[in-house]
Amino acid sequence: MYRRACSGWWTGWPICPWPLELSPPRSPRAALLQLAGEMTLARGDLAGAAEAAAACRGALVGVGYRDEAHLPLARLEVGLCLARD
């Protein structure tokens, strides 16, 4: 599994969804969703990346501002805006 994840972002994608099925706490869930959004955006799937960003933002509702959670989400959202233009 480690070798598969390290061989490139496109092969790491199948590994990302299954941890979400384990219902992790909000912050780790948001991090997984943000990473999934980054990989989806890198593939050029803007709709999928927007969906992941919305899910990430939803996971962070009620969580106080934390750099490690909110700044990666902002990066994803900026990337989405730039890709749409």
Describe this structure in words.
By secondary structure, this protein is mainly alpha-helical. Helices cover 74% and strands 0% of the residues. The protein has one domain. The protein has 6 helices and no strands. α4 packs antiparallel against α5, α4 runs parallel beside α6 (67-84) and α5 (46-59) runs antiparallel to α6 (67-84). The chain is globular and about 35 Å long. The termini are far apart.
Distance between the termini: 36 Å
Shape: globular
Structural class: mainly alpha
Q: C-alpha Rg, in Å? A: 13 Å
Order of helices and strands: HHHHHH
Features:
single chain; 85 residues; mainly alpha; 0% strand; disordered N terminus
Concise structural overview:
With 85 residues, this protein is an all-alpha fold. It is 74% helix and 0% strand.
Sequence-ordered SSE layout with sheet pairings:
Elements: H1 2-6, H2 9-12, H3 17-20, H4 26-43, H5 46-59, H6 67-84
Helix pairs in contact: 4-5, 4-6, 5-6
